[in-house]
Amino acid sequence: MLHRPDPSSTSRKLISLEESYEACRKVTAEYSKTFYWGTALMSPEKRRAIWAIYVWCRRTDELVDGPLAAATTPETLDQWERDLDKIWGGRPLDDADVALVDAVQRFGLNIQPFRDMIAGQRMDLHRSRYETFDDLYLYCYRVAGTVGLMTMPVLGTLQDGELEPPAWKASLNSYLSNFKFDSLDLNGLGCGDEGDDDPTQEAIALGIANQLTNILRDVGEDRERGRIYLPLEDLRRFDYTEQDLMDGVLDDRWRALMQFEIKRARTIFAKASRGIRHLNRDARWPVWAALMLYSRILNSIERNDYDVFNNRAFVSTWGKVQCLPVALIRAQVL
């Protein structure tokens, strides 16, 4: 894994650009096999940039969930954000940054989604419960919905060798400048409202759906850290208590709760799928594949009789292979 830099060693010589991208590829392949399968279908230039973004996101997440998380403070995240400014200034601090600096410059990445992800990690420092889905939605936007915005310039705006067509750039910048956490369109994202397709909202929706899937898959692991991400209002809806969850009670109440949450995640996946046609043609197949692969984790949870306390849901290699031709057809006709 590419660790965050030791301030005392930042003067050392960094690895080459090619070596940095290769290191990012290895990290992505090791730690997110499902995601890596999707990137393998992209053009070399695009998938390398996506690997660099993924590694920064993983390193950011590890600040609060990794082996050194106990040493992380609000000041640690403040410094991480200052380091982010240096990356956007073209000054890599460590080996992983070399690739990200290149991706920033090559695709004109917007810094705000990266800042928002750091804000999500700040939430994890002091919060282990979410009362409502609205509360959880803000967290999911910050730690995962932002990924859709980070990758939009890579997946959706590279055309004929030119960076960021004006319409896409204006759409993204306008959305970021007007984003209000207290007035989110939860109906548009979570309840399957057709409306006018907004590629920015739909890019966020894919990240939200992925994060909800992570939450459902990782209930057992999160409880060991004392965290419950499922909205407490949902637990009460099915008369299932926090203590039940901590004890790993698997009964009809739990199954009904999980069925409710899986339906919500699938609704948001459906919302996200409607935005794929806005992407450049060379990005549609890998994004369809990634969406289908991730959503199949929900199928695995169902096959395991909703036992996420003792069984980790995953998609088999054969299941991944089966997705590819279907994803290709969808990329061509939808």
SSE sequence, one letter per element: HHHHHHHHHHHHHHHH
Our measurement of the CA-to-CA distance between the termini, rounded to an integer number of angstroms, reads 38 Å
Alpha carbon gyration radius = 19 Å
Task: Note poorly predicted spans.
Answer: 157-169, 175-195
Can you tell me about this structure?
The protein has 334 residues and is mainly α. 68% of the residues lie in helices and 0% in strands. It has 16 helices and no strands. The protein has helices at 17-31, 33-39, 44-65, 74-88, 95-107, 112-126, 133-156, 166-178, 186-190, 199-217, 219-224, 232-237, 242-247, 252-273, 281-303, 317-333. Helix 3 crosses helix 5 and helix 3 packs antiparallel against helix 7. It starts with 16 loop residues before the first helix and ends with a helix. The model is unreliable at 157-169 and 175-195 (pLDDT under 50).
